[in-house]
Amino acid sequence: MTALHPVVAAVTARIIERSRDSRRIYLDFITREGEAGTRRGSLSCGNLAHGFAASGDDKPVIRAGTAMNIGIVTAYNDMLSAHQPYGRYPEQIKLFAREAGATAQVAGGVPAMCDGVTQGQAGMDLSLGSRDIIAMATAVALSHAMFEGVALLGICDKIVPGLLIGALRFGHLPAVFIPAGPMPSGLANKEKQRIRQLFAEGKATQAELLDAEAASYHGAGTCTFYGTANSNQMFLEMMGLQLPGSSFVNPGNAMRNGLTRAAIHRLAAIGAGGDDPRPLGHLVDERAIVNAVVGLLATGGSTNHAIHLPAIARAAGIIIDWEDFDRLSSAVPLICNIYPSGAADVNAFEAAGGMGYVIRELLGAGLAHADILTIGNSFAEWTTAPVKVGETIDWQPLPPLSGDASVLAPVATPFSPDGGMRLVKGNLGRAIFKTSAVAETRWTIEAPARVFHEQNDVLTAFKAGELDRDVIVVVRFQGPRANGMPELHKLTPALGVLQDRGFKVALVTDGRMSGASGKVPAAIHISPEALGGGPLSLLQDGDIVRLCAVDGTLHTSADLSGRTAAVPPPQPQGTGRELFALLRHTSDEAERGASAMLAAAGL
């Protein structure tokens, strides 16, 4: 076995030491839940009768309590393209469970909003908060104590983190994630980006823009760019929580049904009553969390996971911070060239070797923990690829070389020597700067600030020509407590146009950018946020701001002492945003995961 890279070893040791007490408390908690918590055997006759009343042919088995009953928690809806294929999964899962001597019931559904639909709209203010709602809905689903295993059906942005956080509170149970796969490739992402910028400049019509968007997002399955949804699939494989190579098989592929079947059979085999129990809370340990971060860096994944992974870790009693991301980024090379870092989409990534290639390279270089506990037998299985053999799925070794060196590179000759996710900090706070999609010549930007409180005001200033200069665009009061921390991806085309005109431009914000944010330098997730007196609230137009990924600084030369914080905009109303006020008001900072639920629970 290859020796663990010293930086990976040191960061893991740092996390273990920092998490020693909280992890022990968590493990004690799930042990108690497993031994004495509410479970099917403790239900009264009335409780149990309610639980199996509508279970049809499975009723005798569920009533007898002699076999695993799998709780299906589904994020199905048929508006969200990635989740539309899940509509028929429950009936398939019930059949597959019976084959394995188990039963299955839909325990509950969770909301699944689409950031692609709400991007730049009022509904985006609900997006991050929906992760807490999903986690709580998962807990509601599993609270009935009818289940000995959990099948989690979710793919997209806040949905996978929410499902995992909720399931970790039932960490004494085994759990598997079951994906549905990406849609086939449509209009190339680079071409879509080009037309967006033309539209921002007034050089393309709305009809032309809609044609381009519809040609890109054209069918069932996950969007094909490497944003948060597909980064979710990556980290689930890096943690061994999803079957090897199952993430990026298209919904219509003949293997898809076989992979779901294999996942359910595997779940039935790792229950508490079998020979190889693998409770979720033991799988998600410090090493698995480090593997998730390493995978994120090696593939150029979504910056949203600088928020989601700390929240997931906390749910398992593990404490990570952006310093851990930054240190790992210095050691983990970028070996994937997928949009927005490159031109290829996830289908090209899969064809070139996909996650099996990535994991094999990382393990071979000692950059990932090979000894994590997974839903399989060993993490080495995740270096293989699934193939259909008759009616079953088998896993076979990958070819020795990448299928496309322009998409997947070996660790020895990476696309970049580091993972491209930097911590920048200074007198404006701490922030994340994703360098992997930004030309190195733009890693340092120093310019006067132009300060905004609303992203639409940025676009108004852009259209008026007020930003045609070197400028640091500051968009504040976008943090979790201010308005729910929406993504500001709507700004990407306009800022890209300014950059293409030859100006030095960067974005500085306490909000988020999309998982597909690209070529414009950006310091995002600034903590502390502006609301409540964070230093960003003291900036004024014209203050010189320096953002530098080379030395990790985010600094203004202006003297902020004695200034009065800017008055924040009114709390958001409409589109249900007022219903999320409690989540906003009690949320903690982005670096801790931006979660009101975890903060209130003392986790």
Characterise this structure.
This protein is of the alpha/beta class and 603 residues long. The chain has 3 domains: 7-37 and 68-184 and 219-397, no CATH class; 185-218, no CATH class; 421-569, IlvD/EDD C-terminal domain-like (Glucose Oxidase, domain 1), CATH 3.50.30. The chain is 36% helix and 13% strand. The chain has helices at 6-18, 20-36, 45-52, 59-64, 89-99, 115-118, 127-142, 159-168, 189-200, 206-216, 228-238, 255-269, 280-283, 286-299, 305-315, 322-331, 346-352, 354-364, 455-463, 492-500, 581-586, 596-600; strands spanning 69-74, 103-109, 149-153, 175-177, 384-389, 392-397, 421-426, 429-434, 444-452, 471-475, 505-509, 522-527, 544-548, 553-556. The strands form 3 sheets. It has an 8-stranded mixed beta sheet with strand order 7-8-12-11-10-9-13-14. A 4-stranded parallel beta sheet has the order 2-1-3-4, sandwiched between helices. The chain has a two-stranded antiparallel sheet with strand order 5-6. Strand 13 (544-548) and strand 14 (553-556) form a beta hairpin. Helix 7 runs parallel beside helix 8, helix 8 runs parallel beside helix 15 and helix 9 runs antiparallel to helix 10 (206-216). The longest helix is centred in the first third of the chain and has 17 residues, at 20-36. It is globular, with a radius of gyration of 24 Å. The mean pLDDT is 94.
